[in-house]
């Protein structure tokens, strides 16, 4: 898509009046003025913002629970091959003091880590924190939330709950169940393995889901049931059942599912 300025010039290309020429000169003068500004000046032109970077690392086991919350700013979570959690980011505010004083609360143990940036009661407006978090492979993304910013997750395990009130959500390589919700933005989910419910919701944006190849093949072949058995199902002596005619996934004990299939065969039922 062309920049707005170019589009305007094209629409007025056949106008030879003095008003059109004056408008072109005004746009040119504004462009030259902007080019003369430094990067700092441009930030001031749009509303100044001061920043403070931070970085922390703590021991964390594979399979640990992870929660990340901020009230304003983007969140990125990815996996790496270390048994530690790496937390970095940038706090920002209308003054350097506000940025410096913005709290980043971290509760950590080898079994769980919680990262939370609370909204200050004394300041409002242009402040928040962008967070970048690396977790061990297999870490469970229990809750990731921001009220104004994008969420990007690469790897990790469910059950995962992702929430933002104004931003996109992108998930790549997650294994397990997922709930993702945004009130203003699209959702893209590329899932490695599905062994629980998948719930994606947006009030204003598109939703794109890419399922594992085995699930796509089963849908094309119109297989009545798809069964998923992971560590949790094996421990509970059951199966996660996905029906062909619905997106819901329901846990059932093995003997209960066998009885259900026998009943369907006996009655020649076509639907559950």
Structure write-up:
With 272 residues, the protein is an alpha/beta fold. The protein has three domains: 4-36; 50-210, no CATH class; 214-267, Rossmann fold (3-Layer(aba) Sandwich), CATH 3.40.50. 25% of the residues lie in helices and 41% in strands. The chain has seven helices and 18 strands. The protein has helices at residues 4-11, 18-35, 39-46, 96-101, 213-220, 231-236, 254-267, and strands spanning 50-59, 65-70, 75-80, 84-93, 105-109, 112-117, 128-136, 140-146, 151-154, 160-164, 169-175, 178-182, 187-193, 198-202, 207-210, 225-228, 238-243, 249-253. An eight-stranded mixed β-sheet has the order 1-4-7-3-9-11-13-15.
Provide key terms for this protein.
272 residues, alpha/beta, Rossmann fold, 8-stranded mixed β-sheet, 7-stranded mixed β-sheet, 7 helices, 25% helix, disordered N terminus
Short description:
The chain is α/β, with parallel strands linked by helices. The protein is built from 7 helices and 18 strands.
Structural class: alpha/beta
Principal-axis shape equals elongated
The count of helical stretches stands at 7
Order the strands across the largest sheet as they lie in space: 1-4-7-3-9-11-13-15
Q: Tell me the fraction of residues in β-strands, as a range.
A: 35-45%
Spell out the blueprint of helices and strands.
Layout: H1 4-11, H2 18-35, H3 39-46, E1 50-59, E2 65-70, E3 75-80, E4 84-93, H4 96-101, E5 105-109, E6 112-117, E7 128-136, E8 140-146, E9 151-154, E10 160-164, E11 169-175, E12 178-182, E13 187-193, E14 198-202, E15 207-210, H5 213-220, E16 225-228, H6 231-236, E17 238-243, E18 249-253, H7 254-267
Parallel strand pairs: 2-6, 2-8, 3-7, 3-9, 8-10, 9-11, 10-12, 11-13, 12-14, 13-15
Antiparallel strand pairs: 1-4, 4-7, 5-6, 16-17, 17-18
């Amino acid at each position: 898509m062309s920049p707005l300025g170019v589009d305007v010039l094209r629409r007025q290309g056949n106008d030879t009046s003095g008003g059109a020429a004056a408008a072109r000169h005004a746009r040119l003068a504004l462009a030259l003025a902007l080019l003369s500004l430094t990067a700092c000046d441009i930030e001031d032109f749009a509303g100044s913002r001061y920043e403070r970077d931070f970085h922390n690392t703590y021991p964390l086991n594979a399979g640990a629970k992870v929660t990340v919350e901020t009230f304003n700013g983007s969140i990125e979570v990815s996996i790496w091959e270390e048994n530690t959690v790496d937390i970095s980011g940038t706090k920002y505010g209308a003054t350097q003091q506000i940025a410096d004083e913005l709290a980043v609360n971290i509760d950590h143990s080898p079994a769980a880590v919680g990262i939370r940036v609370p909204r200050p009661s004394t300041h409002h407006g242009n402040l928040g924190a962008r967070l970048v978090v690396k977790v061990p492979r297999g870490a469970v993304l229990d809750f990731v939330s921001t009220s104004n910013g994008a969420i990007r997750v690469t790897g990790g395990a469910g059950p995962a709950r992702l929430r933002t009130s104004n931003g996109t959500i992108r998930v790549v390589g997650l294994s397990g169940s997922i709930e993702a919700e945004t009130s203003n933005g699209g959702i893209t989910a590329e899932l490695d393995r599905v062994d629980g419910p998948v719930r994606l919701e947006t009030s204003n944006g598109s939703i794109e889901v890419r399922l594992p190849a085995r699930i796509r093949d089963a849908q094309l072949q119109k297989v009545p049931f798809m069964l998923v058995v992971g560590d949790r199902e094996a421990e509970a002596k059951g199966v996660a059942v996905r029906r062909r005619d619905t997106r819901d996934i329901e846990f059932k004990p093995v003997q209960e599912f066998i009885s259900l299939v026998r009943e369907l065969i006996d009655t020649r039922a076509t639907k559950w």
